[in-house]
Write a structure and sequence with these properties.
The complex is a heterodimer of chains A (251) and B (435).
Chain A (H helix, E strand, L loop, with lengths): L9 E12 L6 E12 L3 E6 L5 H8 L7 E6 L2 E2 L5 H11 E4 L11 H11 L4 H14 L15 H14 L4 E5 L7 H16 L4 E5 L2 H4 L4 E6 L2 E7 L8 H9 L1
Parallel strand pairs in A: 3-8, 3-9, 6-7, 7-8
Antiparallel strand pairs in A: 1-2, 1-4, 4-5, 9-10
Chain B lengths: L10 H14 L1 H38 L4 E6 L2 H17 L3 H9 L8 H9 L6 E10 L2 E5 L2 E5 L1 E5 L2 H5 L4 E4 L4 H5 L4 E4 L1 H8 L10 E4 L2 E9 L4 E2 L2 E2 L3 E5 H9 L6 E6 L5 H16 L8 E5 H44 L1 H9 L4 H30 L13 H28 L2 H6 L2
Parallel strand pairs in B: 5-12, 7-9
Antiparallel strand pairs in B: 1-13, 1-14, 2-5, 2-13, 3-4, 3-8, 6-9, 7-12, 8-9, 10-11
Chain lengths: 251, 435
């Protein structure tokens, strides 16, 4: 491991990353050599059509899958060297996932859902409860903590998922089409929440195909056929996200 | 690297996850539990039935009296003696009587009147109080004024037999020594025989004449009722003087057995040894090639106990199979559960659950199912054992309760392991994509 790559201001550092499914003539190159660096505090939208490789990229960034070749450092850690058990810990401590379909555990209260990653982190019950309540308060659901997912609207479920993602204080919030299953009003709510989290200095990566979502990000990366084809910055890493000012003025 | 260790979620949390899983589909969990419940209850009840029937047989045998010995010819030695008998028997023959018998009859193992007389008159048997030769007639049908009855046991003996057998006469009189020596055709009827012939007023039979296989016997008495031992009715019998029985029904062959009464339960072993010494000398045999056997109530008890143990083990084995089937039910349901909750497993893994967390959760869930089935099964088994089953009052064997309960938990562990491992082996990316 060469020292120069251990730059801790880079949450994600990816070099010539490839992902190939299958072998020989039927091989599919989902990622054809991606170079990507994401700084701490950045708010990045990764865009692309279906089949562009953005979901594969998201799985690899989230340590749910591993690349075929190339390097990937998450918060300075070379995750290719890690075994299954260590990857579980990385996912638990470093990453907060937000999914399109919310992925809350059914028949389980909002509070218990948010406590879940803290439980897997081995925190004691009272600490867990305190942090979960704080996270739910943070997303504006302090009055819904004992509701089960079935008793919450889509927007509320997604906010519970955001609370679950931020409860562990991860270095990276990773959202996969977070507004894909929401109506426009809930979409606005969730995007505003993302803006706020970005303002607080959290690193956010959103995978999306919607321009509306991407316009909230400080940086937009577009992918086609497993390659990054454009990388456009809309606001500085340390600046507030582009829609933040207008939202504040409007309210 | 700072991501090395980390411990699994605590047991309480795992129990909570598992409990949520169990209660998520209550009817299904209840039915799964039912399989284990039936298995555990069956083990407890069936072993209790086995133990109970063993106990009732023991009680019945003890009631026969612990100081009665029965000498019977052992057919197992017959083959062995046939070959070497003539060779061995001639020099050891002993008394005039037995040699003459040996000369006229081939050497099949048998007991004779002379054997009985030898035990009765010997000075070397101080612990023997009474001896009675027993002649048995088989397939005897009693008829009286049109009514007929197939007699269970037709015994010919001496008056001493009643004493040795702890039998007394309820109505009329016993037969006497003079009846015996005069070959008097008199008979004592068991209650079941008498009832079949005349109805409930059995005393009315005394003094009348009953025909056995067409031969007339005068009924002199009715025997006291002894009740039944399991399937065997002890009152289905007739006792008559052995001399008369040999004249009419059994012929003059070998004795069925010789009943011997020892002084007390404590002298049974001494009496056994004395009887064996006398008969060994008369038959020219040793302990190794004995052509008869002496059994006491305690030796019958031993044999009955061991056959009952086999019976109990068989019952337990059948029940154990149903417990095993219940365990397979648990595994089946856990596999379904894992498939159904693939997405949940994916979510848990995505947010940091380790392999051990997932294995633990599903294993605890399987154990909860079987544990619950085990607990309720023990209760059902204990309650069920309080009722009489096919005429046997079950006696709960404590070991069967612990065994069934322990096995039910082991079944949860054993049959839960495979589904739990399957759940844990799911790749989060595949599990999350599962619909």
């Amino acid at each position: 491991m060469t020292g120069q790559h251990l730059d801790h201001d880079h949450v994600i550092e990816m070099q010539r990353l490839t992902k190939t499914y299958g072998a020989g003539e039927t091989a599919v190159h989902a990622l054809a050599g991606v170079d990507l660096t994401i700084q701490r505090g950045d708010y990045v939208a990764i865009m692309g059509a279906s089949g562009s490789g953005k979901s594969t990229l998201m799985n690899i960034i989230g340590c749910l899958d591993a690349g075929t070749r190339g390097r990937y450092l998450l918060d300075g850690i070379d995750v290719r060297r890690l075994v299954d058990r260590q990857l579980s810990l990385i996912r638990n401590r470093k990453i907060g996932f937000i999914f399109q379909s919310f992925n809350l555990i059914p028949r389980t209260s909002a509070l218990r859902n948010v406590e879940l990653p803290l439980a897997y982190a081995g925190l004691p019950a009272d600490e867990r409860r305190r942090r979960a309540l704080a996270a739910l308060d943070r997303v504006g659901l302090a009055d819904r903590v004992h509701h089960s997912p079935a008793e919450l609207s889509g927007g509320q479920q997604q906010r519970v998922a955001v609370a679950r993602a931020i409860a562990t204080e991860p270095v990276l919030l990773l959202a996969d089409e977070p507004t894909g299953a929401l109506d426009s009003r809930s979409t606005a709510d969730v995007l505003q929440l993302f803006d706020q989290l970005a303002v607080e200095g959290r690193t956010v990566v959103v995978i999306t195909h919607e321009d509306e979502v991407a316009h909230h990000a400080k940086r937009i990366i577009r992918m086609t056929d497993g390659l990054v084809v454009s990388d456009e910055r809309q606001a500085g890493v340390d600046d507030p996200p582009p829609r933040w000012a207008s939202a504040v003025v409007a309210s | 690297m700072g991501v090395g260790g980390g411990r699994l979620v605590n047991v309480r949390e795992m129990l909570r996850f598992a409990w949520q899983g169990v209660t998520a589909n209550k009817p299904r969990s209840a039915l799964t539990t039912l399989g284990i419940l039936i298995g555990v209850a069956a083990v407890i009840i069936l072993v209790a039935v086995g133990t109970g029937s063993s106990k009732s047989v023991q009680d019945a045998i003890s009631a026969l009296g612990s100081n009665t010995l029965t000498v019977s010819a052992s057919s197992t030695a017959a083959g062995g003696r046939g070959g070497v008998g003539g060779f061995l028997g001639a020099p050891g023959g002993g008394t005039e009587e037995s040699t003459s018998q040996n000369a006229t009859q081939t050497r099949t193992p048998e007991l004779t009147m002379a054997d009985a007389a030898a035990i009765a008159t010997s000075d070397e048997a101080p612990d023997v109080l009474g001896v009675a030769p027993v002649v048995s007639a088989s397939s005897v049908t009693a008829t009286y004024e049109g009514a007929s009855h197939s007699v269970g046991t037709f015994t010919g003996s001496t008056p001493a037999y009643l004493l040795i057998d702890n039998t007394s006469v309820a109505a009329g009189r016993s037969f006497t020594d003079s009846d015996y020596t005069n070959h008097a055709r008199v008979a004592l009827l068991g209650e079941s025989v008498a009832e079949d012939l005349i109805g409930s007023d059995v005393e009315d039979l005394v003094g009348t004449s009953v025909s056995f296989n067409g031969l007339q016997f005068e009924v002199v008495g009715i025997l006291e009722s002894k009740g039944s031992t399991g399937p065997q009715d002890q009152d289905d019998r007739v006792i008559a003087p052995a001399t008369a029985v040999q004249d009419t029904l059994s012929g003059y062959g070998a004795l069925g057995s010789i009943s011997v009464k020892a002084g007390s339960a404590d002298t049974v072993e001494a009496a056994t040894a004395q009887v064996e010494a006398i008969l060994d000398a008369r038959h020219g045999v040793t302990a190794a090639d004995r052509d008869y056997s002496v059994s006491s109530a305690s030796s019958i008890l031993d044999a009955a106990t061991s056959s009952n143990q086999t019976f109990t083990v068989l019952l337990g084995a059948v029940a154990a199979i149903s417990l095993l089937v219940g365990g397979i039910g648990v595994m089946n349901i856990m596999l379904v559960t894992v498939t159904e909750r693939t997405r949940e497993i994916g979510i848990r893994k995505a947010i940091g659950a380790r392999r051990g967390d997932i294995v633990g959760q599903f294993l605890v869930e399987a154990v909860l199912l079987s544990l619950f089935g085990g607990v309720v099964g023990v209760v059902v088994g204990l309650v069920g054992s309080r009722f009489e089953i096919v005429g046997v009052q079950p006696v709960v064997a404590p070991y069967s309760v612990f065994l069934a309960f322990g096995v039910s938990i082991l079944i949860g562990l054993g049959f839960g392991l495979y589904p739990a491992n399957r759940a844990a082996a799911l790749r989060p990316i595949d599990a999350l994509r599962y619909e």
